[in-house]
């Protein structure tokens, strides 16, 4: 193939046709976060009619492999008075959004308008991260879920046991956010993409690796066209986790992490984990609070760590090429005028315009366009979710 192919699909994920005359195309893949896409086309064009009829897109690379797929969201129409300026903007998210479900304590027990009791207090599992996430998705959204909770066409693969061991203790939490947190702790990634031969959606796991020694980008290496850099200090460095009990009977765990670029910054924060019990008692779902508190502290320290991001325009060479040598989640190195920046590839934005053609823009470190308010709302949502004793 000579270039990317942008297909439009219908509500049953059957492919309708190709858009190849858009004003602009942008699709952003994200590591452990929801991706997004946007297509701007001329109003009244064949492509506009196709996108109006369709319910989503599938973007194929030069070899016919899926780069991105996802459903359509709200429509925007603009008109600036110029006959050629009447455009339609179509937007959407990636197919991983289909995992926006609730984690049932007992996934096999239906919850109906007549009410229901669940036999388990939490959905609890300790295993390699891929196995835990795979089982979590399967029983809440996949073929193993109750019939009316299944995502149509979602294929859940057997687990390869990748990632470090994680412990889940979930009760009515958001499935997708919980899976992202488990993957972060376990050192793996996952996404949902449409199959190229069928209308199925496939849950795909990947295991990032440290490629910083040989996947390097720099002007002197001839594979870095441009870049932008931004940095900010950590918002938390010391976490005190308070588990079950009252008054002097509460037990506290403290975890500290200093950032070498901001050695004098110390910010303490309390994580209220009163749902964690000190002793098992009669609770069959009891989790060792030492293990669980460390995991919760690690999540908060990861989220509140110092941020440094480099967005750059790479140039594929014989030595280093996108998807062949590196992809989302991998650790790479960018050589800029401030020195070497080594971090995880958090997102990759794919763009196409008539003037610039196809471009691929990866970002390492925290995404520079993620407002602080979203991080705070996400943290608040997780903190509320963890007050399981109130559910």
Helical percentage: 10-25%
The number of E-state strands comes to: 21
Distance between the termini: 53 Å
Largest sheet: number of strands, sense, barrel closure: 13 strands, mixed
Name the shape in a single word. Answer: globular
Task: Round the mean pLDDT to the nearest integer and report it.
Answer: 88
Structural class: alpha+beta
Low-confidence stretches: 371-378, 386-391
Secondary-structure element series: EEEEHEEEEHEEHEEEEEEEHEEEEH
CATH topology of the domain at 99-207: Phage tail protein beta-alpha-beta fold
Number of helices: 5
Which descriptors apply to this entry?
single chain; 391 residues; alpha+beta; Phage tail protein beta-alpha-beta fold; 13-stranded mixed sheet; three-stranded mixed sheet; 5 helices; 21 strands; 16% helix; 36% strand; globular; disordered C terminus
What does this 3D model show about the protein?
Among the domains are: 5-93; 99-207, Phage tail protein beta-alpha-beta fold (3-Layer(bab) Sandwich), CATH 3.55.50; 238-300, no CATH class. Helix 2 packs antiparallel against helix 3 (175-186). Residues 371-378 and 386-391 have low confidence and may be disordered. Helices cover 16% and strands 36% of the residues. The chain has 391 residues and is α+β, with helices and mostly antiparallel strands. It has five helices and 21 strands. Strands 1, 2, 3, 4, 5, 6, 7, 13, 14, 18, 19, 20 and 21 form a 13-stranded mixed beta sheet that branches. It is globular, with a radius of gyration of 23 Å. The protein has helices spanning 46-53, 129-140, 175-186, 289-303, 372-385, and strands at residues 5-9, 15-19, 24-30, 36-42, 56-60, 66-78, 87-93, 123-128, 154-155, 165-170, 189-194, 201-206, 216-218, 224-232, 238-243, 252-256, 268-273, 307-314, 331-336, 339-353, 357-364.
